[in-house]
Design a protein that fits this description.
Order of helices and strands of chain A: HHHHHHHHHHH
Largest interface: A-B, 45 and 45 residues
Oligomer: homodimer
Structural class of chain A: mainly alpha
Largest sheet of chain A: none
Organism (chains A, B): Leifsonia kafniensis
Protein name (chains A, B): TetR/AcrR family transcriptional regulator
Pfam families (chains A, B): TetR_C_24, TetR_N
Keywords (chains A, B): DNA-binding, Transcription, Transcription regulation
InterPro entries (chains A, B): Homeodomain-like_sf, HTH-type_TetR-like_transc_reg, HTH_TetR, KstR2_TetR_C, Tet_transcr_reg_TetR-rel_C_sf
DNA sequence: GCGCACTTACCGATCGTTCAGTAAAACTAA
DNA sequence: TTAGTTTTACTGAACGATCGGTAAGTGCGC
């Protein structure tokens, strides 16, 4: 059918995440009105997906927000789903990166847990639109199901940490680890629904609040 | 364009909520193959909306899951959006009902808060598909925005309770009430994403866990 | 024979995607 | 320097499929 369509789009391969990166050699002339590059298109696409939902965002509407035509978008990406794939890769890559950092692999279980939760908040805030998109997936397509599976693996890793900390006696044992983890992530993931970067609540303060509420609860305690 | 679309669908008005209600009472005759009635269509529609997302659920697919034709669906409801309206009315009606119960209006602030949270968990579980649909709204249409506004009002009421309890000295004051409420609802609302009724975790146990984690946190406390 | 609960057949609009063509910049060779 | 070639970044029109919704007819129990 279409002879050239499938052929690999050059930049997609690496998991590098594409944040800036070596690309272009900078020689990008950029005289007059600069043309779009893929990261710019992706940013605007993800914002639109979050505003209207992925399914409800048509390529026409997306083109409108870019100020170009539908077909111009197809110059940069091979399909609508490709935009989704690139976005999800970025979000998942950042999240998975937390688990391989020293703070997440060395030390007492409860401190590792704290480190991972703090890291999750950090990624959520710094990659807010991308993680938002990830957290709203429904699993309609193979791509979405794969992303959900990777997210579930991340959850499982944290759940294991909770269990470890509980076995070590530093976390309460009267609520099971699975439920605990889910409530924990429910709390953290909800951040994408209401947090506005640049507002009065800083990223660090937010992370502190999350850790405080999660570990010590809302109640005023006698001892402390 | 479509002349009849707007005209009020008869049943939407009252807050009756329609939980089961007078109808059928389960004694649903069902001799041979019973024809569909509106509540049955609504149940299946809401399930489909939750499976695929509202936008991604076509009327054709919905008809397929009902085992009938698209037009048959239009015999029972006037539009796709009408299905959404009926579903959201049910979820919001139940949630708002909590706030007017005695347990939510009488007594100490922290006990009223506990009552409302427990009630929210109860409604979430008992009306799981309907509340799930509500919690996933994006606000693309007027209808969705209205529903989101009502949900926000509910959140505000709870936020006021948190503030009251904090002023009374029963809740910690080092995290502000707005953030607290949002984290609280993040935790509670996440239930729709993972809770399976009929599983090992009962509704009452779930509510207990939520209250425990929210008020006392995960940490093992010295004093108690 | 009449209303209820559908059915088949279809409408215009919109969807994601493709296509042929093109202006302008960038590179190449003389 | 300049003519020729290639690459980049697009435009506008169109495609088949599918969308939400409608019109008109059909079987069937009362």
């Amino acid at each position: 059918m279409n002879p050239s369509a499938e052929s690999g789009s050059p930049a997609t391969g690496g998991g590098s995440g594409g944040s800036g990166g070596a690309n272009g050699g900078g020689g990008n002339g950029r005289s007059g009105r600069a043309p779009y590059d893929l990261p710019a298109v992706l940013d605007i696409a993800v914002a639109a997906f979050n505003d209207y939902g992925y399914d409800a965002t048509s390529m026409g509407l997306l083109a409108e927000r870019l100020g170009t035509s539908k077909s111009a978008v197809y110059y940069h990406v091979s399909s609508k789903e490709d935009l989704l794939r690139l976005a999800l890769e970025r979000a998942l890559g950042e999240l998975e990166g937390i688990l391989s950092q020293p703070g997440a692999t060395e030390g007492a279980a409860d401190e590792r847990l704290r480190y991972v939760l703090r890291g999750a908040v950090k990624v959520l805030v710094e990659e807010l639109p991308y993680v938002t998109l990830l957290l709203r997936l429904r699993g309609n397509t193979e791509l979405e199901r794969d992303a959900l599976a990777r997210r579930r693996e991340f959850d499982n890793a944290v759940s294991a940490l909770v269990e470890e900390a509980r076995d070590a006696g530093t976390l309460r044992a009267d609520v099971d680890a699975r439920t605990t983890t889910r409530l924990l992530f429910g709390m953290i993931n909800s951040i994408v629904e209401w947090y506005k970067p640049g507002g009065p609540l800083t990223q660090d303060q937010l992370a502190d609040d999350v850790i405080t509420v999660a570990f010590d609860g809302l109640r005023v305690h006698d001892g402390r």
